[in-house]
TrEMBL record:
Keywords: Membrane, Transmembrane, Transmembrane helix
Protein name: Putative tricarboxylic transport membrane protein
Domain called DUF1468: residue spans: 6-151
Cited InterPro entries: DUF1468
Source organism: Yoonia tamlensis
Keyword hit for Transmembrane helix: yes
Record carries keyword Transmembrane: yes
Transmembrane segments: 6-26, 47-63, 83-104, 125-143
């Protein structure tokens, strides 16, 4: 079995476990007033698990295969791929998750987007900062004001 199918099998098992958690365990402890709402805290995880399961099955069954084989991953040549960038991005994600509370959503998200785009090869600093600030601000506004979920926008020492 090809490397992409092994990865799809692992992702399928993760999505099945995630879906089990979202469908059967997350809604058990909801408050009564939350049970009457059209969107529950488990709605997005349910949708994500369904998409993950469908996409993993598409790869496992080979439905995405076309006539060309140019883009296939050869596990014997992994050293030729940009693994350094992937590892740096994964490390940056961990640092982002750790920095969310002390630095705040706006600062940590902006820094994550700027550093992530730098790792991926973007060198236009004005564009990186502008897009990152706008994206972080829009996401914060949508989550905080539209959805009503509290996100600490600034570092903890600057207050609420």
């Amino acid at each position: 079995m090809a490397l992409d199918r092994w990865i799809a099998l692992v992702l399928l098992s993760i999505c099945l476990l995630y879906g089990y958690t979202a469908w059967l365990t997350m809604d058990a402890n909801l408050a009564p007033f939350m049970q009457r709402k059209p969107i529950w805290p488990s709605t997005f995880p349910k949708v994500l698990s369904i998409f993950g399961i469908v996409l993993s099955l598409i790869i496992l069954l080979g439905l995405e295969k076309a006539e060309q084989t140019v883009g296939e991953i050869d596990y014997r040549k992994l050293h030729e791929y940009k693994l350094g960038q992937a590892i740096l991005i994964l490390g940056l994600m961990v640092v982002y998750a750790i920095c969310l509370r002390p630095i705040g959503f706006l600062g940590s998200t902006t820094a994550f987007l700027v550093l992530g785009s730098f790792i991926l090869g973007e060198r236009k600093w004005l564009v990186m900062f502008t897009v990152s600030l706008l994206t972080a601000g829009i996401i914060w506004y949508l989550v905080q004001e539209v959805l009503g979920i509290f996100l600490r926008p600034l570092p903890f020492f600057l207050g609420n």
